[in-house]
Amino acid sequence: MDIFEKLTSLAKRRGFIYQGSDIYGGLAGTWDYGPLGTELKRNLKNEYWKTMVQLRDDVVGIDAAIIMNPKVWEASGHTESFADPLSECKKCHHRFRADNIIPEEKFVAADFTIADYKCPDCGGELTEPKRFSTLVETYLGVIDGEKLKTYLRGEITQGVHVNFKNVVSSTRVKIPFGVAQIGKAFRNEITPGDFTFRSREFEQMELQFYVKPEDEESMKWFEYWKNARKQWYLSLGMREENLNFKKHVKLAHYAKAAFDIEYNAGGEWKEMEGIHHRGTWDLSRHEQFSKQDLTYFDEETKERYTPMVIETSGGVDRAILFFLMDAYREEEVKEGDVRTVLKLHPKLAPMKAAVFPLLSNKPELVEKARNVYESLRKEWMVAWDERGNIGKRYRAQDEAGTPYCITIDFDTLEDDTVTVRDRDTMTQERIKIAELRDFIASKLA
Ligand code: ATP
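# adenosine-5'-triphosphate complex -> structure
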């Protein structure tokens, strides 16, 4: 089994992620987050927001609508060029993204003959790549024939740019400043797959950072955000050897620089987040199409200009997939006994702790444990388990990524101490109940 298969199976077994519409045979490219996955996702998004908005003076957040005026997508260039190159196998009729089959340098330089490449599934001949729009169409209104055709947003970026003027006039931001957003995006992907890596419905977490339209100044910010975003993944425990910066071979005509932060997914580097210098493209296009003045008046220099934008665009679901992959370990505890453990950073772990009474048929232990559980859950998500033997309960929490297991035993009744077992080292220590809160809080600081 490869790492994607192992994770898909663990995710389903433990309630992290299920196939979307599972009982109907699924719907390709859609996924539902279960109880543990939902907590993990909330934690990840909260950490993003804390780093990118809460702790910064120069970034504010917004939450724009998913469905927008269709003119937005004309202005952004999506209706014209948000497309992937589709090739179909003439024999088995499977469809592929030609840019996934042909090496990148050759593909971007259009230096290839399709006959030199074969269907990855059956070896059949492939058709010439055709542009296939990945925008998901939707219709609003009640009268057939008069319905407004628009799109489910293909990226969350445009919701920020169309609100540039609103944000500037309703807040105290001054350039350089950024607007962050987290939300759903939809793409009619030709080949959804690799678990949640390529989905048709997914979430993005983005920053649009507006700077003076000066090359040196804007490149300084580009480098700043490129490094800051990598640091964020490292700060949440991702292993540095699994991260890579990839420079884009071909830039959009308006772009000044673009890098991807890639993750080493089972030996293959895969895009996790893009850092793009988009020049003045977005604001000037919206200015042109909306006929509104979207320039910025700089009080300090008394200049009026269209700012440049540095974008950091990460996938929430891809980050979750790669955090899970990074945390996944199979460890031989003793000969023939392998445990599966998710060594997730405590900040990301769905449950911060699990509380167990040593024996479920001793009411005095259950009551004492319940008190500990009730007091900790006021602050954090905490699991409760009284089934089976302690060893099995530890293993279940290892697979859930719970960093600490707290057991209430007969000594607890005497001296108010509990056993705290560490997920990663499997060592145990006695801690006073009164100190438990600070102990867990210190791991989340
Ligand atoms: P790819 O080349 O993999 O299709 P992209 O370059 O089109 O990705 P962007 O448009 O830059 O991706 O989107 C920014 C981020 O959104 C990506 O880095 C990724 O984390 C996430 N993302 C994009 N498409 C998907 C998808 N189909 N499923 C899940 N996440 C996605």
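# post-check
The mean pLDDT is 95.
The longest strand covers residues 201-211.
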